[in-house]
Amino acid sequence: MDYINVSGNDFNEIRKKIRESKGKNVIFSGNDDDVARKVLEKEKISIFLINLSGRKDKLKQRNSGFNQVLARLAKKKDVSIGINFDEIISQGKEEKAEILGRIRQSIILCNKNKLKMIFISRESRDSYNLKALGLVLSMPTWMAGVLKI
136, 103 in Cβ contact below 8 A? Predict the structure, then answer.
């Protein structure tokens, strides 16, 4: 399958890129939560890739960029949730711990809404190890998936 990665913070540019990529599966990633919601509502994408680094957590809640509203939209549109594994590996110890906490929060939301989660890696990683990481983070076996781009 052919995948195309679309990212950005301007909805019109993202819409144009998605419309140009006919016949390919679209992986969308963006830092702006409002743009992500618009894309999930109005465009056809295959995977919503969550950017987990560079976010500021609140006092008693993690900010993963994925919430119950986006989860319901993803379920309605049959969109899988993607986790960038290379983003986890490239961080330091403290940031890595925060990212794993955000992933755990996203797993709970995906489990409630019966969404599929996919670990995405550009480097060649063993798919069994990535699935094992998902299981350690309390991901059910039906939810775990691996995609190598």
Answer: no
Q: Where are the domains positioned within the chain?
A: 3-148
What would the two tokens of residue 101 be? 């906490």
pTM: 0.88
What is the third-level CATH fold of 3-148?
TIM Barrel (3.20.20)
CA–CA dist 51, 97 (Å, integer): 15
Strand, helix or coil for residue 113: helix
Q: Which residues pair with 148 in a beta bridge?
A: 121
pLDDT digits (tens, 9 = 90+) for 19-53: 998 888 999 998 888 999 999 999 999 999 988 88
136: its two tokens: 């350690």
